[in-house]
């Protein structure tokens, strides 16, 4: 019987029955939850919360503010036809999203620090002004919405949001960092956002209805477009601007009788041949009249090694064994003639195994005059870089070579201002036998002081890092092999010049 009734039902009867079974509109409470006004306010309040959060792990310091600014843009996009102030909020949100996208893309280059630092104060002022203007327009916009809804609710919470932001700026200017005070400000901010959400509910209660402004692209399509543009920008600039522009030129052999004569004298005194071949003619001639030469060489690993477990008298022990030592560092000290004791110090490095070059390299030189008592630098810091390819040798000057003054923050001692000699450069991925050196003279100031010249080589292990940091920036930040993708190899030329001997004392430190 049931089958006969079903077969007798026509298509028109079925559509009539379906229309009667499904109500025309969702229940009022559901409609309020998904209505344009409530949805837009939810996005705005979530956007305000996320864009104000700074969490420095798992890239949340980039993700959360970006999502928050996008939510603000989508929320004000819906309400931009309500009044002129909410339209201004939408326009400010567009500018803020554009600035955030530009910053995210800029962070993928090695230039963001040098480009932002001179303008950092003005950028911060501009972004703070945008934030204040947004809060002011939001408050005025909610006031007009309240008037349109018959004076429902109050806009004191929106005004409190503006006052809260002014207070935060004032605390920042006086460098207020008391943890309990900042925690109180955070709790107050959450209370303001909750109050704003209640205001949104009060407007719903009096029947305030808003129609979504017409758009050409859906919210999902717009979000996907902005994310795709940002990701493409990060990828493109990361590939193009991840290393320094180096001026590599083929080495042209010279035939100078004076240079060859000095070379012969240096080799007779024990100067390392593989270091001598890389010196410029000017640096070789500066060693004329050498009296004594001290040298030291050590190969260093630039890899994680492997763990070897052994059992000894005191129990099991785990040692790290390095099967490959990629970086060879040689120190040379040449005693020169002069009224006071004079030495030329040469730090030479050579990659005996190609480690792969992905971005930037750097050398931090702790010169012998660092102790400011026994020795002083007697001339300029010189050096060059070299590599071989297709039977030819190419050379380039360091991208940066000189003194850098910087501020380093210590967990135990706070910020301190330091000044060191740095060499910054990038090596080509192609070719072989990548190498280079630094050389400088020192003059004796007082008798009896040890010569101590530190050489800290920072190598980039991987191309994957965000935001992109240079090897020199990593060293100035004070990291000692604790942050990927950099590893530091530390050595030093250390010896007492008044002692006899041919080996450097204490050369080579890990």
Describe this structure in words.
- The chain has about 500 residues and is an alpha+beta fold.
- Helices cover about 40% and strands about 25% of the residues.
- It has 15 helices and 15 strands.
- Strands 1, 2, 5, 6, 8, 9, 10 and 13 form an eight-stranded antiparallel beta sheet that branches.
- Helix 6 packs antiparallel against helix 8 and helix 6 packs parallel to helix 11.
- The N and C termini lie far apart (about 90 Å).
SSE-based structural type = alpha+beta
Strand tally is 15
Shape: elongated
Overall mean pLDDT score? Answer: 83
How many helical elements?
15
Instruction: Characterize the quaternary organization of these chains.
Output: single chain
The level of helicity is: 40-55%
Low-confidence stretches: 1-9, 21-33
Measured by DSSP, the beta-strand proportion falls in: 15-25%
Rg over CA atoms, rounded to whole Å, is 34 Å
Distance between the termini: 92 Å
Properties at a glance:
single chain; 510 residues; alpha+beta; eight-stranded antiparallel beta sheet; five-stranded antiparallel beta sheet; 15 helices; 42% helix; 24% strand; elongated
Compact description:
This protein is 42% helix and 24% strand. The protein has 15 helices and 15 strands. Strands 1, 2, 5, 6, 8, 9, 10 and 13 form an eight-stranded antiparallel beta sheet that branches.
